[in-house]
């Protein structure tokens, strides 16, 4: 998730003492035990009243990136309540959000999986029978061996899964690499289109999760006078003290304090703009590239581009810097924008107004604000790129700071998402080397189950080999709900997975009976991280970094075991247990990984100290993306073929000419607006509304989705504009039927002018609830019942996650 010790090796202040002092201060109230993490109260002079209460530090390990701090209070070996972080500087407290604070309901839920099971019904039916651990482990080992002997290691696939981030959390790769490896995957479901496209613009080592190509929100706070956010809502996606929602609050205060403003471009008024309606700039989803193009038009027409920057640092803005292969053919970016090349359409604000639903004058005034800002901070969340035209959209947004030459300077950003912390204090369990070369884009796995052997480099983005030798025959799914719920087109995926002649064995490892778990042949119950010793570097805030070490807070229920121990047992069946464990327990590994981190970093506390204090945090410096390149482009070239920002990419032109694309698909050497599959212009009489999604505050994807209290806090509702609701006779609270070309859901209506007309919005991650052997109507309101499975042209990614067309009616 984070990049390791890349840039800022050392911070300004050492917070060991501060953190410890905070705990001591708290001890007056809580009893001395809080000072010592795991030590029982009653020691160190606490009152006798809470004698049997113990405190264990742990963390939230789901994938919103925060890893906020849990301070568990347990009695008689069972957690009774939780406090969060109350240590150290109040600005550095990694306090859990409402979801993290509900973790006790998950740990102690009657829905926990308690013992290993084997499937007895049809795949997807959810019928299982308890078996022993011995039988489960023997079956898994036998199926692995059968798959390797019959097909080869490249028929094994470890599915994308993000349910649990912890230093020793998921040793799946380590085990499978010892057995000869598995089919690799590239990209992720978070940043799929952006990860594929941005390297063509900014260079191959440009990632979505770094502080070299993007600036931190703290830099915006320090120096920006205009923050323009495209599809980015930290108040929803970066909740909790260990995330940037707090940083963002400070950005608003600082930027407005110096007379600047925040512009929040979204198809709905998201929670980050909530209470600040003047910040919301409503846009039709999937059309940000049209807005960016019209802004570019205004900057060019008014002579507001930084031509010197474009000539020195970039390739392909205009004819002056076009590469030889494309010279004299009107293929520059300027040709596209001014209507002298490509589609020959001038990208005026009037042109964009029709597409984006933003009035031309509003576009003009945004362009003018951008041109006059001293330090515009242009930033995109990952919402805009999670569309079928995402590869072009994310580059088009980056064109704004590029044209202005406002990159690598104080208070500016590269158009990417804000940077993430530069320091991972502790690493994870080493995974070893995977001997299999073949690699598929992660969203292509269903195709690889269905017809892997037909997939090639040019028709499916396969890398490492020219074509796949195998279909996927063994699916390994640890801590993920991406077999169905979080993937796309659940009804289609069901067809593929329920055919047992295709994928012959599915292993799922979870804590509750998710929709994906229903497809398991063997289903294993996992001990949760608060039920074992746990360690992880803190999350996404750029303001500080930290590490938490502690636990267990209680014993795992039933027959739940740690994945480390179970994988060691599987390794044993292959005679590689010693290589897997290297003679160490999980606890040994955690200590070793911690000490390895501390050895590289002079400021971290010793092992004995961290065990006592549980939490260590310290402030981080701000980051300015591409500062080194800006300061000296000769000495610090980008990892593009030219060493410059490639507005025109010859590599993309080459891919466009050589890959096999389906009708309607395009790959473009410059960032353009294309509608994309089920994008702008695709609505029709049967499906007259655009539909898109967003990440919801009551869940982390589907994690926490079964906890009723959270569902009551922020319900699963379809956002619909009053204009669209009225014509359908819909009022808030109505139960609706939503149909797309892929499927049908039931969901409650939320009629609100906080969404643009013509588009409806559905929070992603709700639990799919359908009779898959009956009518398949999803009563759970899962958006992936509606998405169509059609990987995007370049990334072969999950663009359909946010691009849908639907009809909505009262159910
Ligand atoms: N349509 C649409 N689809 C999307 C998205 C979207 O925006 N729209 N977003 C996409 C994105 S960005 C992502 S990252 C993916 C996320 O998709 P997933 O990675 O599937 O994330 P979750 O739904 O949180 O599922 C995590 C699973 O891990 C389990 N789990 C939690 N803790 C533990 C543990 O300690 N041990 C074990 N064994 N299991 C555990 C949880 O119960 C849950 O079933 O979804 C993607 N899907
Ligand atoms: N509460 C919560 N937090 C989370 C998660 C979660 O499930 N719940 N998931 C975590 C994970 S793994 C990830 S990857 C991140 C996801 O982070 P993002 O991908 O940034 O989150 P999204 O909600 O998909 O999109 C961000 C915003 O973009 C808007 N949007 C969608 N399409 C468009 C568009 O075409 N144009 C514009 N301008 N705006 C658009 C959405 O309404 C939303 O407000 O969040 C992380 N944080
Ligand atoms: S913000 Fe994320 S990591 Fe922090 S408590 Fe909430 S769900 Fe957990
Ligand atoms: Mo994600």
UniProtKB/TrEMBL annotation:
Protein name: DmsA/YnfE family anaerobic dimethyl sulfoxide reductase, A subunit
Organism from which the protein derives: Slackia piriformis YIT 12062
A biological process term (GO) from this entry: anaerobic respiration
Keyword Aminoacyl-tRNA synthetase: no
NCBIfam families for this protein: dmsA_ynfE
Record's keyword terms, sorted: Iron, Iron-sulfur, Metal-binding, Oxidoreductase, Signal
Pfam families cross-referenced by the UniProt entry: Molybdop_Fe4S4, Molybdopterin, Molydop_binding
A molecular function (GO) term: molybdenum ion binding
Signal sequence region: none
Every 4Fe-4S Mo/W bis-MGD-type domain range: 53-111
Family stated for the protein in its record: Belongs to the prokaryotic molybdopterin-containing oxidoreductase family.
Gene Ontology CC: one annotated term: outer membrane-bounded periplasmic space
InterPro entries cross-referenced by the UniProt entry: Anaer_DMSO_reductase, Asp_de-COase-like_dom_sf, MoPterin_dinucl-bd_dom, Mopterin_OxRdtase, Mopterin_OxRdtase_4Fe-4S_dom, Prok_Mopterin_Oxidored, TAT_signal
């Amino acid at each position: 998730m984070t990049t390791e010790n890349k840039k800022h090796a050392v911070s300004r202040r050492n917070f060991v003492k501060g953190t410890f002092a905070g705990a001591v201060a708290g001890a007056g109230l809580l009893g001395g035990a809080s000072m010592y993490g795991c030590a029982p109260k009653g020691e160190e002079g606490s009152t006798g009243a809470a004698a049997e209460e113990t405190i264990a530090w742990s963390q939230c390990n789901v994938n919103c990136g925060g890893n906020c701090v849990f301070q568990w209070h347990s009695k008689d070996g069972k957690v009774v309540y939780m406090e969060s972080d109350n240590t150290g500087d109040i600005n550095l407290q990694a306090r859990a959000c409402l979801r993290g604070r509900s973790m006790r309901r998950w740990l102690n839920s009657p829905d926990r999986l308690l013992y290993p099971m084997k499937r007895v019904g049809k795949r997807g039916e959810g019928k299982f029978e308890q078996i022993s651990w011995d039988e489960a482990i023997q079956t898994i080992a036998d199926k692995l061996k059968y798959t390797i002997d019959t097909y080869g290691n490249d028929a094994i696939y470890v599915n994308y899964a993000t349910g649990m981030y912890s230093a020793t959390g998921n040793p799946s790769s380590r085990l499978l690499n010892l057995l000869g490896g598995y089919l690799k995957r590239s990209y992720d479901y978070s940043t799929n289109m952006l990860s594929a496209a941005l390297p063509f613009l900014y260079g191959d080592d440009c990632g979505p999760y770094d502080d070299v190509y993007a600036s931190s929100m703290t830099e915006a706070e320090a120096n920006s006078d205009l923050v323009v956010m495209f599809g980015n809502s930290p108040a929803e996606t970066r909740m909790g003290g260990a995330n940037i929602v707090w940083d963002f609050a400070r950005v608003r205060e600082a930027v407005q304090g110096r007379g600047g403003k925040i512009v929040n471009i979204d198809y709905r008024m998201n929670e980050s703009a909530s209470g600040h309606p003047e910040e919301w700039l409503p846009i039709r989803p999937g059309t940000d590239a049209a807005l960016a193009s019209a802004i570019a038009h205004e900057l060019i027409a008014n002579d507001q581009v930084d031509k010197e920057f474009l000539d020195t640092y970039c390739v392909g803005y205009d004819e002056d810097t076009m590469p030889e292969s494309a010279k004299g053919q009107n293929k520059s970016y300027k040709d596209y924008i001014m209507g002298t090349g490509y589609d020959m359409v001038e990208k005026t604000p009037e042109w964009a107004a029709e597409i984006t639903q933003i009035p031309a004058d509003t576009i003009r005034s945004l362009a003018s604000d951008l041109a006059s800002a001293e330090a515009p901070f242009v930033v995109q969340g990952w919402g805009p790129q999670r569309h079928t035209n995402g590869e072009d959209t994310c580059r088009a947004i980056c064109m704004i700071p590029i044209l202005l030459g406002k990159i690598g300077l104080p208070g500016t950003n590269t158009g990417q998402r804000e940077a993430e912390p530069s320091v991972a204090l502790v690493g994870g369990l080493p995974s070893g080397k995977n001997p299999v070369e073949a690699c598929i884009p992660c969203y292509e796995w269903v195709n690889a189950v269905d017809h892997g052997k037909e997939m090639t480099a040019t028709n499916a983005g396969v890398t490492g080999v020219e074509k796949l030798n195998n279909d996927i025959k063994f699916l390994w799914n640890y801590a993920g709900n991406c077999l169905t719920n979080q993937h796309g087109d659940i009804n289609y995926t069901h067809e593929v997975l329920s055919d047992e002649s295709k994928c012959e064995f599915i292993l799922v490892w979870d804590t509750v009976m998710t929709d994906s778990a229903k497809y398991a042949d063997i289903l294993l119950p996992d001990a949760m991280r608060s039920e074992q010793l746990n360690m992880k570097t803190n999350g996404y805030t750029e303001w500080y970094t930290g590490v938490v070490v502690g636990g267990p807070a209680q014993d795992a229920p039933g027959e739940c075991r740690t994945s480390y121990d179970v994988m060691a047992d599987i390794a044993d069946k292959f005679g590689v247990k010693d290589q897997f464990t290297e003679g160490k327990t999980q606890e040994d590994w955690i200590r070793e990984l911690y000490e390895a981190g501390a050895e590289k970093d002079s400021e971290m506390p010793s092992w004995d100290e961290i065990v006592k204090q549980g939490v260590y945090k310290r402030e981080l410096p701000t980051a300015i993306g591409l500062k080194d390149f800006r300061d000296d482009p000769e000495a610090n070239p980008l990892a593009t073929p030219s060493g410059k920002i490639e507005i025109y990419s010859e590599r993309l032109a080459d891919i466009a000419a050589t890959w096999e694309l389906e009708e309607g698909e395009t790959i473009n050497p410059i960032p353009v607006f294309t509608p994309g599959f089920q994008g702008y212009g695709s609505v029709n009489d049967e499906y007259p509304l655009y539909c898109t999604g967003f990440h919801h505050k009551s869940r982390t994807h589907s994690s926490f989705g079964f906890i009723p209290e959270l569902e009551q806090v922020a319900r699963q509702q379809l956002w619909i504009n009053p204009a669209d609701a009225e014509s359908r006779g819909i009022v808030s609270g109505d139960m609706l039927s939503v149909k797309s070309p892929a499927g049908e859901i039931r969901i409650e209506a939320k009629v609100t002018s906080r969404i643009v007309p013509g588009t409806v919005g559905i929070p992603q991650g709700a639990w799919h609830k359908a009779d898959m052997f009956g009518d398949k109507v999803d009563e759970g309101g899962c958006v992936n019942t509606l998405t169509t499975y059609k990987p995007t042209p370049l990334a072969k990614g999950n663009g359909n996650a946010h691009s849908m067309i639907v009809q909505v009616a009262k159910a």
